Structure formats: structure tokens, C-alpha cells
Amino acid sequence: MLEVRGLDARYGDAQALWDVALDVGAAETVCIVGPNGAGKTTLVQTIAGLHRAAAGTITVEGVDVAALPGHRVCDHGVATVPEGRRVFGHMSVRDNLLLGAYRRPARAVHRETEARVYELFPRLKERATQQAGSLSGGEQQMLALGRALMALPRLLLLDEPSLGLAPVIVDEVFDAIAAVNATGVSVLLVEQDVERALSAASRGYLLIEGRIVASGTTTELRESADVRERVLGM
Amino acid sequence: MTAVQAALSGALIGGLYALMAAGLSVTWGTLRVINLAHFGLILVGAYLSYQLTSAWGIDPMLTLLVSAPVLFVVGAALQWAYDRFNIVEFNSLLVSFGLLMIIIEVSTQVWTADFRHIDAGANPYGTSALHLGPIALPVSRLVALGFALLLIGGGHLVLERTFAGRGLRAFAQDRTVAASFGIDHRRLGLVVGGLAGVSAAVAGMVFALGNTIAPAHAYEWFGTVFAVVILGGIGNLLGSLFAGLGVGAFSALVAVLWDPSYEPFVLFLAIILALVLRPQGLFTRRGLA
Ligand SMILES: Nc1ncnc2c1ncn2[C@@H]1O[C@H](COP(=O)(O)OP(=O)(O)O)[C@@H](O)[C@H]1O
Ligand SMILES: [Mg+2]
């Protein structure tokens, strides 16, 4: 589904990613864990085409999207739930969802997809006409996820979906992610909450200072000294 | 009764202010371009309507069939250039002011600095009025209000109800996230710039119906129209309609009840007060950031 090779990213002179390689298989959930400032958000934004790669390839279903303009990457089935949710606060919940279905194939079936998102998150239906900015953090996270689903993604990029949420809400969000994954959508999950990430995923990568320093199944990662020391603090 | 008459007919002129403000407000609110050249487009729109009416002897409103497409292209081309050279916000203020001066200079070369007006014979709207008992409402101003309602109401519906409108509102709030859902800001910018050009054509035509035209008018519109944009809330179409009507009625009242020479002073004092009390504009912004 997703194949990243030799990926570098920089902000001006400062390099944020060094020779990153990773894979996400079809219908797989893969996590990336690492401390604050490791480059996780940069990695997600670069894959989504929102930050230009300095070097390397990003192949989605066999197509290299690294050189595409940001607004074209979604045409290859990639949707993002950005860090901090970033819902459109001045728009209604429903308009946020419909915005997710902006591109043609998704637009044609937006009513059906909207109904499915409301099934997944009944609370969004109750709040459909409310301004997104007035929602609680948990509801905004559901909205950000719902908005991404409206785009009919085949690869979902999630950047710290647990950030700032109460544990019961995080459970709800992760249940929804599992449900989405069960429908065949591949998931790349970035998390600082390592426990959650490792339980949700089947494989993972450890990113430190812009480099992948360990990878493997989540069981292997749990055992790894690096992960235990550097992100679990054990 | 003079007060009622003044308020009503002032509010109708406000329709013209709203038409002038709408394009400026939307490009500012969504594309972050403060396009002062917009006043130049309105001026050119007025001259085109004048010229075509004189040349062909057609109804002034029909001149929109030519001036609207022409200014659509000009508006889109301007936006393309702003985008190409990454001119936004403060830079756009300077650059577009320069463009405005050029447009005014060229207009002066083409149409001279003399006052021009559509021949009374060719202008069925110029001097007639609608009489409601003791109150007389000039038809040219009713036309202004009619077009303002049509254009701004239509624009509002597009922003609220269509995918393109949602895309534009989303883009105004968070460009990066909007792009991740496929919103191509270049293409959207061309359309918005073009439509702002169309609104300038309409505003220019409406202005030409009831006024004489001279290049210096473009500068005179500045203060009032800016006030309408800010009071209405930047990027808020309905807000600019209400603000236009309010500013029109208020100025007319000051002129009648007090003294016409106090009008700008009192108007801007009131605007400053209003902004101190409600910095986000008088009308809560919905949709646009
Ligand atoms: N917009 C930016 N401009 C400059 N440097 C940035 C920017 N965003 C992130 N960085 C830097 O890139 C590195 C990686 O940041 P980020 O991808 O946000 O990490 P993470 O998401 O893992 O916390 C950090 O050193 C950070 O300071
Ligand atoms: Mg981050």
C-alpha cells in the first residue's frame, strides 16, 4: 500500500528526517512511535504531500507521489487526521464532513459515506448543525476522523489521535480506528502514547531524531531495549 | 419625514457600497489579498458601461454582457499574478495600490479627467423615481439594492451550500488541511478573483447609472468601502450587505439632520467606536475566518 524509501525532509537548513524507509501493507495498521520532536509529524505531513520531500520516494499503490502538489495526493487514496485535529472551527460539523468528500469519487457518494460516519460516531449526527469549534476535544477528534473517512481513503494517516483527550474518549477513538481498519483501510498511526499505539498496531517503527532506529512486530518492539528506554522510560 | 426619506435613500446607496465591498471582502477573507486594484476595476466597469451605452445605444444593464466577462478575466489574471509572485496581506496592499494608480492613470488617458455620464436619453434609470406617498426613491438606487441582494445573496448561498463554497471557507481557515482534501487554491483563487471582477463590473455599472464618472472617484470610494468591509467582517458577504446599508443610512442621516460636511467625521468616529466595542466586526463571522 505505502512504501517509503530514502526519505529526507528539511525545514530550511535544518534536516528533520534522514533516510527514512517504511512500509504499510494492505489493510495493515502500522505505528510510528518516538519522543517529542522526533519528526513524526514531519513524516506524516511529507507522506500526505503537505511538506515537500527533500529526497526519496513515497510510493502509494505503486505510484510515486513524492513530487505531486499537496492537493493531488488525496487522489491516490490518502487521507490525514492531522495533529491537533484541526477541524474547521467556523464551519458546521456537517460542512466539515462534506469538505472531506471534496474530490470527485468521494463527492458522488457523500450521502452514503456521511450516513456511515454517523453510524460510527452518533454524536456527530446530534451535533451536525453545530459549529465545529464549539465541540469538545473528543468530539473534534471524531470529526477529524470522520472528515478523513468522507474522502474514502485506502490509507489513513493519523497523527497523535489521543493528544489531550480523556482516557475513555481515547478508547472510543481507538475502537473507531480498529473498526475502520477492519473494513480494509490501511492505517499509519503516529503516537506518543506508546502503549496504545503498540496495542492498536501489528507492526511498528521507532523514530528518533529523524531516523528509524528500530522496527518489527509490536511484540518485538515491546521487548526492544531502545523502545523501553527511550520512549517507555523503563 | 425628511429623516425617513434620507435614511431610506441612504440605505439604498448603501447597496452600492455593499456591491463595491463584496469583492474586496471575499478576496481579503479567503485569499488574504487586500486588492486595492478592485477600486480600479469598478472604475473601469463604470467607464465600460458608459462607453458601450453611448456607442451602441443599448440599455446600460445590457453592457454587463461585455463588461462582466472582461472584468472576470482581468480579476482572474490579477489573482493569478498575486499568487504567482506570492503577494499577500501587507505586500498586496502596496502592490495593488500601485496597480490602482496605474489603472487610474490609464483611465485618465482613455476617458480624460472630465466628468462623464451616460446620456439621459440612453439611461432609463437615471432620473426616474419610485414614489411611495411622500417618499421618493431614485430608481438607480433601487437597482443598486436589487443587484446587491442578488449578488450577495447568491454568493452567500454558493459559499454555504456548494462543495466549492465549502472548499473556499475551509481554505480560508486552514490552507494546509484544505489542501490535504484536494482543494487546489490556485484554481479556486482564479475563480474567486474572476467573480470579484464580475462584482466590480456590476458595481461600476450601477454607479454609472446614477452618477457622473471621473477617474478620481476610485480614491473617493476607499474610505467608505473599507469601512463597510471591516464593519461587515472581513470575508463575510452578508455582513458587508448589512454594513453597506447601515453605513449608507447613517451617513445620509448625519447629512440631513446635522450638516453634510460632518458626515465623514461622524461616520468614521462611529466606526472606530463600533470596532472598539466589537473588534470582529458588527456581524458575527460565520464561515470565513
Ligand atoms: N515548521 C517548522 N519549521 C522548522 N522546524 C520545524 C517545523 N516543524 C517541525 N520542526 C522541527 O522538526 C523536528 C521534528 O518535528 P516534528 O515533526 O513536529 O516532531 P514530532 O511530531 O515527532 O514531535 C523538530 O526538531 C522540530 O523542531
Ligand atoms: Mg507531532
Automatic annotation (TrEMBL), chain A:
GO terms for molecular function: ATP binding; ATP hydrolysis activity; branched-chain amino acid transmembrane transporter activity. InterPro entries: AAA+_ATPase, ABC_transporter-like_ATP-bd, ABC_transporter-like_CS, BCAA_Transport_ATP-bd_LivF, P-loop_NTPase. Keywords: Amino-acid transport, ATP-binding, Nucleotide-binding, Transport. It holds the Pfam family ABC_tran. SUPFAM superfamilies: P-loop containing nucleoside triphosphate hydrolases. Residues 2-234 form the ABC transporter domain. GO terms for biological process: L-amino acid transport. It comes from the Bacteria. Belongs to the ABC transporter superfamily. This is Amino acid/amide ABC transporter ATP-binding protein 2, HAAT family. The lineage of its organism: Bacteria, Bacillati, Actinomycetota, Actinomycetes, Micromonosporales.
TrEMBL record, chain B:
It comes from the Bacteria. One of its GO terms (cellular component) is plasma membrane. One of its GO terms (biological process) is amino acid transport. CDD domains: TM_PBP1_LivH_like. One of its GO terms (molecular function) is transmembrane transporter activity. Its main location: membrane. Coiled coil: none annotated. Keywords: Amino-acid transport, Cell membrane, Membrane, Transmembrane, Transmembrane helix, Transport. It is a multi-pass membrane protein. The chain crosses the membrane at residues 6-26, 33-50, 62-81, 93-112, 132-159, 188-210, 241-258, 264-283. The keyword Glycoprotein does not apply. It is found in: Cell membrane. The keyword Lipid metabolism does not apply. InterPro entries: ABC_transp_permease, BCAA_transport_permease. Belongs to the binding-protein-dependent transport system permease family. LivHM subfamily. This is Branched-chain amino acid transport system permease protein. It comes from Asanoa ishikariensis.
